[in-house]
Amino acid sequence: MNILELAAQNLISPAILFFVLGLSAAFARSDLSVPEAVAKGLSLYLLLAIGFKGGVSVSAHGVDAGLILTIIAGVVLSFLLPLIAFALLRVMSTLSVIDAAAVAAHYGSISIVTFVAASSVLTTAGIAFEGYMVAVAAAMEAPAILSALWLVARAGGGRSDEAVDSGLMREILLNGSIVLLVGAFAIGVITGEQGMAKIEAFIVAPFLGILCLFLLDMGLVAGRGLRQTRGLLRPGLILFGVVMPLSGATLGMAAALLIGLSTGGVMLMMVLAASASYIAVPAAMRVALPEANPAVYLTLALGVTFPFNLVLGIPIYLALAQTVTGGS
Amino acid sequence: MNILELAAQNLISPAILFFVLGLSAAFARSDLSVPEAVAKGLSLYLLLAIGFKGGVSVSAHGVDAGLILTIIAGVVLSFLLPLIAFALLRVMSTLSVIDAAAVAAHYGSISIVTFVAASSVLTTAGIAFEGYMVAVAAAMEAPAILSALWLVARAGGGRSDEAVDSGLMREILLNGSIVLLVGAFAIGVITGEQGMAKIEAFIVAPFLGILCLFLLDMGLVAGRGLRQTRGLLRPGLILFGVVMPLSGATLGMAAALLIGLSTGGVMLMMVLAASASYIAVPAAMRVALPEANPAVYLTLALGVTFPFNLVLGIPIYLALAQTVTGGS
Amino acid sequence: MNILELAAQNLISPAILFFVLGLSAAFARSDLSVPEAVAKGLSLYLLLAIGFKGGVSVSAHGVDAGLILTIIAGVVLSFLLPLIAFALLRVMSTLSVIDAAAVAAHYGSISIVTFVAASSVLTTAGIAFEGYMVAVAAAMEAPAILSALWLVARAGGGRSDEAVDSGLMREILLNGSIVLLVGAFAIGVITGEQGMAKIEAFIVAPFLGILCLFLLDMGLVAGRGLRQTRGLLRPGLILFGVVMPLSGATLGMAAALLIGLSTGGVMLMMVLAASASYIAVPAAMRVALPEANPAVYLTLALGVTFPFNLVLGIPIYLALAQTVTGGS
Amino acid sequence: MQTHKAKRVEITIEAVMEQRLTAALERAEVTGFTVLPVMGGSGRSGRWSREGQVTRAAGMVVVVCIIRPERLDALLEAAFGLLERHIGVVCVTDCEVLRANRF
Amino acid sequence: MQTHKAKRVEITIEAVMEQRLTAALERAEVTGFTVLPVMGGSGRSGRWSREGQVTRAAGMVVVVCIIRPERLDALLEAAFGLLERHIGVVCVTDCEVLRANRF
Amino acid sequence: MQTHKAKRVEITIEAVMEQRLTAALERAEVTGFTVLPVMGGSGRSGRWSREGQVTRAAGMVVVVCIIRPERLDALLEAAFGLLERHIGVVCVTDCEVLRANRF
Ligand SMILES: Nc1ncnc2c1ncn2[C@@H]1O[C@H](COP(=O)(O)O)[C@@H](O)[C@H]1O
Ligand SMILES: Nc1ncnc2c1ncn2[C@@H]1O[C@H](COP(=O)(O)O)[C@@H](O)[C@H]1O
Ligand SMILES: Nc1ncnc2c1ncn2[C@@H]1O[C@H](COP(=O)(O)O)[C@@H](O)[C@H]1O
Ligand code: NA
Ligand code: NA
Ligand code: NA
């Protein structure tokens, strides 16, 4: 299948269309909304399911040498990407050092929903991938935050010397998403296929439907964010929100090829590098860099890069991964 | 199957019994309750599922000429029914013009849960219906509100000249339920059977069970409403709450026969005409006719007509639809 | 299978591991949490499902003479166990009369989640049990509260003469959990296999998965409770939290053998007698014995006895039930 | 605009006692009140939080009553009868209201 | 610490009117407000509770605005225009704030 | 009934800062506080709302402390240290409490 066909097929999947519905409803100022508790419940489900499935897959195929290497590569990428993002932002935008560093932190980290959407595209297409990629996702959440704080400290801004108190480090490393993802992964490894047999009807069958409902909410939130901050996103920033994921994906692809991941693994590594956090990093930024404007980083990550990755990025990354690995 | 058997079978379906359980728990002043966020989550699910299923069915069977005609008929009914309801109320009750108009608006509009319950009775009985009926349901939500405001304006009451600001019209037309119903319908049309295959396990399999849980909550809410407003509902009003749905159903049947809908389609049109809104219209009334007493219209719609339709109306309408169409 | 194998197998079931994950996350002070509304929604689901399944099973196998006898036995146990618990506490701890009585009330009553976990172990192991055990569970919730208040009155404490106003008795008997459990049981009896066929995909298939998510939350709550009250639980109290369920289970086993329940029935009766309430009884204690310290009884029931029963108690009780009934 | 003196009474109380408090308020002829949810708190009986709470027993609510100054004592008596044995806080503030005839 | 006199205005209003109220506040150049959820309440139109509510129509919210004293009248006019026909309560309290330049 | 003068301090603060604020309050020996949820609001950093929020970062909470007047300054110092760099509002009101020994 060529890249256009893939993109077209991706575009008319229910998941993408529910995201577009949410976006449109928000733009039209409909009062459609998903209660906060329900949205949080759905995201707990997605983390639990994706983590557990990854763990079961590792327990079935065993851990090949790639696991450690891939995690190291992920961590290095997470440290590195904010530096690239920061450099791009200083050229492409007029953001202050603090705002630019805060945005950069988001792009070094990852968006787990983009990962979930990408892995469900792989599953639908029948393309296998390394189950331990969810562990890599978890490992990539935090390092970017340190890079960003170092960027600020270097520029002498933001009192970042006292910013990273021990409380913050614990909060970042033990934030709920990471703990549930890694915990469910571990439980999947321990209980294996036998555990999967017990809870498959909950974990696997309704997964795509629940993803649709969750993406509806993401569309609503992203749309409301975009509507409330119109004017804030100058062309340069919007361009950054598209160029940066493509740069990240390229680096992710290089790393994945060096390690020798499968087609699916290469694609997921690209997705991780390309996606921008909107959960763990924004919270950390509010604590450590309160002077940075949340409207900038949230709108960019959630309103520009997330939709770009979801709608166009995923088929592009998949097509590239298939080309470079010679995968079908 | 004759009408009594149908009613009996309907009565002992889990869905009806969970509604009765909710009603009884509320009357007995149990503290059983469904959190607001969960109730809202369940209703999002029902709207998404029923809309999507309707859309997929349209994509499979094609749109016959009936779609446009049926929507027009629905809109006309929605404009018309409040006038009949208002006339009946002026005769049968001592409600003020404003209260009567507010009640009338509810009966011109529709109750989507009654529609969902009716369509699941059809599905269980293996009776097909036009998938576009969910679009008709959406189209019937709003017109009744305009009729009711016109009734008030004609009587010189309620400052309704300024009542329908442009904000209110947008709120009514883009209220969350309509947007999700129509959006999911459109996504169903676009993605068709292929989309259904992906999310069937979420949309179809657990549907009836989730409806049970939702009806439990509806029973609790209706029961609490009835208990708190005892004394308010005079016999004349209660009688109206039963006579009006039967009148609406008769008109709905006539319209559906004129258009030539299938047995299932006729029955659903009756249900739409017979049911009374308890989501979109109450909210609109609070904004446009704040002087109308919400206890009257909410109790009548939710405490009298909704249970009547659910328990007795649905089997009656089905039996009639089968008789008049010669359907099995 | 011997008791160690059973315990080991129980230990590596996803449900137990998610509970352990929740406990660990709480101890590590992660911010992982399940929103209150979602936790309540999950518990509504579990009550509805377990009640309904019990009812369907009764409708299939008929009610044998055991039902009435077992309920009577359950009620007697619920009255009796607090006296034993109280006596043990006066010996093993330095709790005041009021605190000891409040704790005792919890151990006479039952924990429905422990019951749910135990019955899912039975289902997985393919061991049948009497469907009416859920009715027994409901009947055992309340009597213990009266025993505890009597203990306080006898000691002249706590103004318990005025404590049990009629409002409180109604609240206890009609508390949401009991009403939903008994109501769903009755609906299961009425609609039988036919009703089950309609909602099986909601009630049965995802059950274990939802239990996992719920136990994750229980682990978080229990862990936070333990962390916040460290120092409060002296060794004597912790010992009581383990000795009391074992004593309860022994009495429960004796009663079940007298009545002649099946292997599964004996095991569930042990579980009911061994488990401690953390929903109905704490609420009643806050109203009737506000002077009793909630940290003591909640931590003991939720932080000590619940994990003990879940992890070690259930396999022990099952092994014993198999031994004494000669069940396989 | 024309405003009128009134008292704002804020009662923080266990959720299980809410019904009993509002019934007592109604008996004391308090004409209106508003109930606000509470996420967590801390006091002599320690820290608690609503997140992941599985039991009704541990939550609290805030009941706010705005009343005419002359009705304050009746309200406090009614509330105090109930609160005496229970945890909870009562806080009274002077305030001004529009539409005094509603109170 | 240095504090400054201000007014705390608390408006209890139907949830369906929230958008219209906050728009009116913005037109009256009120620079900030906070919206709190309401679980239930009682007044002349009876008792209501959020639990199990299936309709948007029945809920209320509390909107809290802290403003400089001299801006009170403009705010009350703005709110009153909306509240006249609707149920709801307005309550004004004297207060002190830190960082007065924010109001 | 016998009431006692006290201060009611209401701190509106980002949810991510809640733990740090309550820890600071505890260090300043504030004996009790209550945390209320916030649905949305508006201020210099714009309008926000809790509905459909997927990120912890954007929410706020209100922390209410009732304290003896003489302890006010210690509390404000503690809160201010934290709030200086963060968005949020502090509002102090005079109030009367029952059972003064609890504060
Ligand atoms: N000084 C205070 N200020 C505000 N809320 C308080 C105060 N003291 C107690 N509370 C609230 O009342 C609850 C019970 O207090 P206590 O009885 O002291 O444990 C606490 O969890 C807080 O929610
Ligand atoms: N005196 C009052 N004190 C506090 N809240 C009130 C008061 N009166 C009314 N309310 C609130 O305003 C709502 C509507 O009041 P009403 O218009 O009197 O029915 C009630 O449900 C309460 O939430
Ligand atoms: N004048 C005010 N009155 C009430 N709440 C306010 C006020 N100003 C700000 N807030 C609250 O504090 C949050 C942050 O304010 P700001 O730092 O001005 O963006 C707002 O979203 C409101 O919830
Ligand atoms: Na990234
Ligand atoms: Na109708
Ligand atoms: Na027990």
Question: Your description of this structure?
Answer:
The complex is a heterohexamer, with three copies of chain A (328 residues) and three copies of chain D (103 residues). With 328 residues, chain A is mainly alpha-helical. Chain A has one domain (35-210, 236-292). Chain A is 78% helix and 0% strand. Chain A has 15 helices and no strands. The relative contact order of chain A is 0.19. Helices cover 21% and strands 41% of the residues of chain D. Chain D has two helices and six strands. Chain D has helices spanning 18-27, 72-83, and strands at residues 4-14, 33-37, 40-43, 46-49, 60-67, 88-97. In chain D, the strands form two sheets. A four-stranded antiparallel β-sheet of chain D has the order 2-5-1-6, covered by helices on one side. In chain D, strands 3-4 form a two-stranded antiparallel sheet. In chain D, a hairpin with a 2-residue loop joins strand 3 (40-43) and strand 4. Chain D is globular, with a radius of gyration of 15 Å. Chain D starts with a strand and ends in a 6-residue tail after the last strand. Chains in contact: A-B, A-C, A-F, B-C, B-E, C-D, D-E, D-F, E-F. One adenosine monophosphate (AMP) sits between chains D (12, 41-45, 48, 60, 87, 89) and F (31-34, 64-66, 103). One adenosine monophosphate sits between chains E (12, 41-45, 48, 60, 87, 89) and D (31-34, 64-66, 103).
Element pattern of chain A in H and E? HHHHHHHHHHHHHHH
Provide the residue-averaged pLDDT of chain D: 88
Helix content of chain D: 10-25%
Structural class of chain D: alpha+beta
Mean of residue pLDDT values of chain A: 92
The percent range for strand residues of chain A is: under 5%
> So what's the oligomer here?
heterohexamer
Which molecules are bound besides the chains? adenosine monophosphate, sodium ion
Structure annotation, total helices of chain D: 2
Low-confidence stretches of chain D: none
Pick out the low-confidence regions of chain A.
none
- Could you tell me which chain pair has the largest interface and how many residues each side has? A-B, 30 and 31 residues
Q: Which sheet architecture does the biggest sheet of chain D show?
A: 4 strands, antiparallel
CATH fold naming of chain D:
Alpha-Beta Plaits
How helical, in percent, are the residues of chain A?
Answer: over 70%
Could you give the distance between the termini of chain D? Answer: 18 Å
Shape of chain D: globular
Our measurement of the CA-to-CA distance between the termini of chain A, rounded to an integer number of angstroms, reads: 9 Å
